[in-house]
Amino acid sequence: MKEQFFISILFGTLFLLIIIFRVLEPTYLLRFNKPLYIHWYPFSKKLKSNQRQILVNEFPFYNRLSSKRKMYFEHRVNKFIGNYQFVGKEIAITEQMQMLIAGTYVMLTFGMRNYLVSLFNKIIIYPSSYFSTINQAYHKGEFNPKMKAIVFSWEDFLLGHETSNDNVNLGLHEFAHVLHFHCLKSNDPSAIIFFDEFNEVIKYYSDPVLNNVLTQKDYFRLYAYENQFEFLSVILEHFYETPHVFKREYPELYGHISRMINFKEEYLK
């Protein structure tokens, strides 16, 4: 009898907390322009020591995090690798590949609560640029919503990852497309913030005066002006690769991007 009583109290308390949370978060969102919480993992996943060493060697972003946030980052990398299928085309999938791809995605989405999305379920990797029968052209990477796939040329992914100051990063670029599509369709708190800030960011593409300010300085490469999707992806590449230059040249636009993905300034230190 006592056991049933305590169980009913537990479930009643849990139900009350859920109700309070659903009422409280929208208010918090409106006031502070960020979700009530981002990271909460009752059963945190851990990486193997060799996997953790890859993060240490390959991701300055990870190394700047506090010990607690490093645990969050590792948990998300572990979940990413377990959630998506890696498919090699004429190339063997290695742990290094999985870690670099997962780490890039987690870095981009680290400030967002719902980071695992259902828009893709597999990551297809080719050794180098591959021929697409869809448009009869060679590609370095793409996000294909119909196939629910992200496709990378490993040669080009690795080049983008290893060259960290040229503002060209294939992994960030294609994952930015995924994030963009997800936030246009979703109504979770992070997606709402993303969409609101994106509407401000895209003015720099669509407004002739603001666009002229960008093109005069020639900071963003020309591919950014192909369409609004490429504009956002290229901007996010610059945001992660040369953040101090970005912030100095375009502080207002930089602020919109920071809020859009809930990026923390301390990650740059």
Topology:
Layout: H1 2-32, H2 49-58, H3 60-64, H4 67-83, E1 85-88, H5 95-109, E2 122-126, E3 130-132, E4 137-139, E5 141-144, E6 149-153, H6 154-162, H7 170-185, H8 189-201, H9 203-206, H10 208-217, H11 228-241, H12 243-249, H13 251-260
Parallel strand pairs: 1-2, 2-6
Antiparallel strand pairs: 3-4, 5-6
Helix pairs in contact: 2-5, 4-5, 5-7, 7-8, 7-11, 8-13, 11-12, 12-13
Features:
single chain, 269 residues, alpha/beta, 2 domains, four-stranded mixed β-sheet, 6 strands
Provide a descriptive summary of the structure in words.
The protein is an alpha/beta fold and 269 residues long. Strand 5 and strand 6 form a beta hairpin. Helix 2 crosses helix 5, helix 4 crosses helix 5 and helix 12 crosses helix 13. It starts with a helix and ends in a 9-residue tail after the last helix.
